[in-house]
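To: structure desk
From: M.T.
Subject: fold request, one chain
Message: Could you run this one when you get a chance? Sequence is below, nothing fancy, just the single chain.
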Amino acid sequence: MNLVSFALIFTGVMLNAAAQILMKAGTNAVGHFDFSSVNILPIGIKLATEWHIITALFCYVLSVVVWIMALSRVPVSIAFPMLSMAYIVNAVAAWYFLGEDFSLTKAVGIGVIILGVIIISRA
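Reply: Done. Structure tokens follow.
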């Protein structure tokens, strides 16, 4: 895999990971809610106007465009497993930005993912 292909995959992964963190920040800002016929419109409006969620959706759209460009250059059997890099980015970003726990178990799992990505990228 050449540098351009890897950069496209990595950019797509980072945009997707950013979207996940922004979605969580948006739901944190809105607060816990239950879906019911009574609150679907008020909650829907809150979600549709929350800037974190709007930005997350933009990141998702952009990540799809970048991902299509990546798939035009790399076999899907190599590109798709590279999406697992998002687990690493999300775990670290959730710890750093959202204050979520980062345990030894997560660190070991991330190590396994990194090893897998290295093996696949050399195929």
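Reply (cont.): The two ends are 8 Å apart (CA to CA). Let me know if you need anything else for the meeting.
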